[in-house]
């Protein structure tokens, strides 16, 4: 039997914080009248419900088993009918072998009825346990007697039989959080890497050190570090166009165990160097990297016949990409193993890319396995050497300071010469399997990705426009359009180009370079367009038909996350429109240009008249890949003006 | 809404068949090369062989067996390589399940056994907890064609409806498919054809009736959009006159008898305690008529109770007791309808629990074939000459209005004499009105202010109430996109009313520049703030099925545009009057020189939300003409 003795408090540190302005959490059952009378969230008045506070205290219990215990207390305010759904609660946990448990759940609804506090407790019989699958369960309940104005609260103890399964804390939610506080007490011989995703200042940020003694066969003494962090007035996180991922943006703090120091000796897993060692020795990683593939000699021989390194890379990439099909599972390591995946012709992305790595090495290309995190999985923090930041392995081939290949053969529309867009603007971790060298690289693509649209059309006096358009899609635009064309077929692709406009008829589309990786996808379109807005005096036409640039995605007034395009783009629209006899332009749109105050985005319109032709040219250029939410007002205004100009019609007057 | 997801899942997800040993299926059917070209045309997959069997052991007890061999031709039907079989803890269990994948030559690639499958809790997106589960596995296809063989056997120990045979899926051809039902003659087996004329061969053996349907070489059919699946899906419904559910025997040979079963099921849960009943009587004591009392109690329900769906065991069919709802203040559709019935009973107003299919443009039950195709409950109050329907899951629906979730079909009323199948109200255009008044004030520099007032009834009202639950920023975006409002420089919502079934919206907009084009002394405008009708439909050579909108409607918009001082009209858009068999669009423009105002009135009426296939092209051209009419411009110029 072990016992823990607490001794005196050794030291306490308080970091600089913002003064707290909202009420602090109260004990279960004690509710301020002000909260019962609250009509709306003061920092987010259009919220249907608000988390008044969410509070957790997490500590270790070192008895016969090591356990992490979290004591959680959450209180919500329901403002209206639509907010009532937040009074349905679901707590999921891993039940296998009691890995996690949820205990001592208490919940109650507090209403203000005729000026008096009325408490309705949750009936134990109304708590349901759903077994989600072999591993997971959920505790589910609905609060009783919920009305607009109700305060509901619940508390429970969460327990895990694990040293390292430390819960991630989310300060933010889909509704506003008035106050969120996490207290963690961790013995100092457990070295945890903390990853904080939060730019908002804490209102409480303290650290207290306490000495503890664990008595057993051997008595030993250690410190327990207790940290408390709190945020107040955390705005809800909406889902916004071009946000990187929910995971990157939800204000949170996560903990990864990276080392344990025991009795003087320090066992450490938390450096990139150690990670290389771990990966090299791992059966599902290092051991898989050089697995010989049946029949590989033929492929290698064929690759060696290619003229140069670039073509060898292209050949092997395309060979694996075509031969293998991804099973859509994402892990940084292998699942069935490379050889089994090769036999079945299907595997996870990591297995597929490891085959590619192996073959590249066989033709002496300096390739490295590189762990990445896809956009949805969240960005990698290079200062946090933990593997669960990654969810895929790709192949990295540096060429020189400006050029590299990042190969992911698991998506059949990826190109060998384009860095996969779902890995951009995050770090990749690669290592040299021969020398065990390693590094982290920021994966980015600084080249603007081009899209060009060239229209040559003739306007007929009967209010019809007939012409051709040549659309050229480069890089990611090519990948996206090829994916659409090959998955949906030609008819659907035509519908995509048309929008839902029945006045536009696409009589034919011809594609060029669908299977040539180094050239843009060219779409040659023959079209006719009814100028339906024309009347007996005027003909009108717009010049953004076929460009997919009609609707501004950024009409919202507020922005809570950065706009992350992933890559830069450059869009050119050129048009030459022949004016029918008997008409002349009422006026031409003026030459115009727009730039963001910091020059990070520009738009130009150049219009001229030459004989019977109106010549118009638009260019849109994004010089950055990420636009900060702080710059959103300027960004939004830029887009508003740009879309106005893109949608501006030209009038021709009957003379 | 999810009264018995278990059964619905079976009907919708699963084509259930028989175990014939694999050896009985010709080896050729496992090979892609033997597929006739005629079946590949327009098909993403082909059912090579399907044997589906129902063996009825007795009322409420049956075995479903399914054995299928399907060749998948392309990635659009990758889902055919997914097996997903629902079951639950009490009424349906899976006794056998297996999936095998074969390559193009019919060589076995992989076998998925029960132990390889994911066993998960099923969610319906609405309920917070249910008993429904599923077993599932997915085969990743590496090259096409691939052939998938599926064998499933499910034991049912309770059912209301035996099930159905779904003959053909969209974009899928069928080479051979057989369905067989074996039922003791004592259970009263019967069937109903829907969108098909396939007839069975009937034999008798050992006191059992055996029915066998078979189809061969059905070519793939391309589906059409905007038609509910039930209008086109070829099915044969099965049922037995005698059934049993959770140990409760019943008779569904007539709607009346089926209603009696329900009446017994609910008998012990549909009353309030005497004390609560007395309180309810007191609450309504001052109201004169029964109708006033019913309205008061319906509003009491709406203000106090909330919809929470919990479906466990017989709780999937039997409501929570009225007193449970009274205390916890929540329940699902059946619990809330049952509670509403109990409130009315307390004040001596009779009402009927009404079983119905909920869903926009849902399928009505077939009067001649008593069965249970329902998934929802409402309440029917039979006031004399004024039958009143109550949707008890809604906190906002006006008293006595059902809406398009349950209109235009029938419902089974559970009366004291058993079940009675009656029609719910038909959707009427005048129930869904959109009226708006717009006042635009233009300034000489092209800047403008606009006040927009919208009044919506019926589904418009419901939609707008739904929108008000969104964040203000999202609401603004919603209206800009849905109504095609030009992006303003300022957008304000003003306080809005919801009175007497009309939801009012007030919007104020400001523009730096409202015109489309400015040229010398002229300005060109879109002569309105939003589009009253935006929809156009694709040009088709031939439409096979009727076209369904959500609702019929009446829309009108009056717009007044104040011209800037010193400007006058150069070109007024032409008046338009467009018609088609089921509606009309009219717009008139006039210029009041004295006030320097342009007035317009736009009307759009859709008198029926169902457009017969034969009228599709007429509708398509009519809607294109509306789009064209809406494109015309107003040109103003500086006075000389």
Strand portion of chain A, in percent?
Answer: 35-45%
Radius of gyration of chain A: 31 Å
Specify Rg of chain B, calculated over alpha carbons.
29 Å
Poorly predicted ranges of chain B: 1-23
Beta-strand residue fraction of chain B: 35-45%
Principal-axes geometry of chain A comes out as globular
Alpha plus pi helix count of chain B: 11
Termini Cα gap of chain A: 103 Å
Shape of chain B: globular
What can be said about the biggest beta sheet of chain A?
Answer: 9 strands, mixed
Q: Helical region count of chain A?
A: 11
> How many angstroms separate the termini of chain B?
67 Å
Sequence stretches where pLDDT stays below 50 over 5 or more residues of chain A: 1-10
Derived structural class of chain B: alpha+beta
Helix content of chain B: 10-25%
How many β-strand stretches of chain B? 40
Instruction: Tell me the helix content of chain A.
Output: 10-25%
* Biggest chain pair interface: A-B, 63 and 58 residues
Largest sheet of chain B: 9 strands, mixed
| Average pLDDT of chain B | 93
Main β-sheet, spatial strand arrangement of chain A: 1-13-14-11-2-3-9-5-6
Report on this model:
The complex is a heterodimer of chains A (655) and B (640). Chain A is built from eleven helices and 36 strands. Chain A is α+β, with helices and mostly antiparallel strands. In chain A, the strands form eight sheets. Chain A has a nine-stranded mixed sheet with strand order 1-13-14-11-2-3-9-5-6. In chain A, helix 5 runs antiparallel to helix 6 (309-323) and helix 6 (309-323) packs antiparallel against helix 8. The model of chain A is unreliable at 1-10 (pLDDT under 50). In chain B, a hairpin with a 5-residue loop joins strand 4 (92-102) and strand 5. Residues 1-23 of chain B have low confidence and may be disordered. At the A-B interface, strand 7, strand 8, strand 17 and helix 11 of A face strand 6, helix 10, strand 31 and helix 11 of B.
